[in-house]
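Apologies for my clumsy wording, but are you able to produce some protein sequence, whichever is easiest, and the C-alpha cells describing how it folds?
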Amino acid sequence: MSKLLLHPRDADAEGRIHAITPESAGWRYVGFEVFRLGAGQRLSLAVPGGREACLVLVSGRAEILAGGANLGLIGARISPFDGSPWSVYAPAGTRIDIRAESEAELALCSSPGTGALPVRVIPPEAVGLETRGKGTNTRHVRNILPESEAAESLLVVEVITPGGHWSSYPSHKHDTDDFPHETYLEETYYHRLARPGFALQRVYTDDRSLDETMAVADRDVVLVPRGYHPVGAPHGFDLYYLNVMAGPKRAWRFRYDPDQAWLL
C-alpha cells in the first residue's frame, strides 16, 4: 500500500482518528490531526511550542476555550458540504479546551510558529469564496487561512469538487524554493465523500521517481511531499477535501505540468 495514503484508524480515547506529525510524514513543516467527538465529549489540546495551529470544525458544534478566552459555541454545519466552516487560529503554547455540543468532527492543522499572533475566531463570513476552472474542471474553494490573512507559516483551504469533475488540475506542483516562480510547500489532503464511494488522486514528479495513483475513501488523508497532485471525483460522488500547506515561505506559487499547459 502507498505510504502517501493514510486511512483513518479507530478513534482513541480522545476521539483521534488521524495523527500526522512532521516526523511521521518524513518532512519538516505540516502536522495534521482529526478528532471525532460524541455529543458532550470533552477534549483538551495544547499547541506545542514552536508551532501554530488552525482548528477547523469540519462538522458539528462545540464550545471552545482557547488561551484562557471563552470563544463561545461555534460551528453550524451538519456536514462539510454545508457551507463555510468555523475555525480558530491558535499560536504556539495555546491550550484549547473543547466540549462538543453535538457529534462533531474537528481537524487540527499545524506548522512552525513563534507565538507572535493572538488567538482569533475565523467565522464563516470571513472565509473567502471562489470558483475555479470551467466545465468539468469547475470546483469551489473556501479560503480559511490564505496568505492574505495573518499567520506565520500555515495555509488552510477547503475545496468542494462536484461529482464528475477534476480539481487541483491542470496538475501543478510546489516543491521547489524558487520564489516568486514557485514555493516549497508540503501538503495534506483530508478527503470526505458525500456518499460511500471513492475518488482518485495521483502524485507524480516530472522524472516519475514518484508516481502513485490512489483510490481514496471517506476520511482518508493523502500526503503530498513533492510533485503534481490532481484529484478526480467520479460522476455522482461529490468530494470535499481540506488542504493544509506550509513551507519556508508563506506563499503559494506553483508550476503547471508542462504536458497540460495547453489547457490554460
